[in-house]
Amino acid sequence: MNKNLAEKVFPAYMKNLDIICPPVEAKKEKIEVYRICKTGKIEERSFLPTYIEYEEKGTLTFLDLNDVGAYSLSCYEKKRDARNKLIFFTKKTPKPIAAVGITSPDCGVVMRTKERKRTRDSHVDWWLYENSTPWKYFREANVLLR
């Protein structure tokens, strides 16, 4: 089997769901996005899908497991939305930072959240392949400056 092909699989927690995850409309696309890094660093721990974050904290009961977005990495296209999220997380975590980068097709597939449900912000869902390294495509961004 081709090694590159073997690496392009979705994590086990996305299999055997009652929903199709990722959605069939998700695609390999490069989108410039912002990600809030709650650890204060651009590292693997700051790029965990929502499901994994909640699972590690033991708070899965607070997550809608029938929403495909629960299994994605959350990003934002617009600086304004990233700024709002950074301000929100500043109240909950010690020193989060914003990072800007691209949704590399080598790491997974994406879909703008407004394409699948009603939302007013620029949220992007990014479903990552196993062993992907999305943080390598990001750098720190100062979203508090206009």
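^ that was protein a. below is b, sequence first then the tokens
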Amino acid sequence: MYSKRFAKEVQITRHAAQRMQSRAISERELSLLIEEGQTRFKDSKRFWIAHFFEERCDNLLCVPVVHEKDLLVVKTVMHHFSWEG
């Protein structure tokens, strides 16, 4: 998968792929989340991306992401998410 928004290849960890499968999150939804989601940065390398999916009963999906040199690494996929603070 490639992100035009971040101009990087996207690597999905095994853990994230397992969460996607168990939560019925498609690669299309993940791509949309990455390309159009709202971001909140923890620091220059780590951040979260969240996107609201009206058609899903768990609505707001979120991925914690790490910027690596040439990659965007998706660490996991969360559902029923809400921003804190």
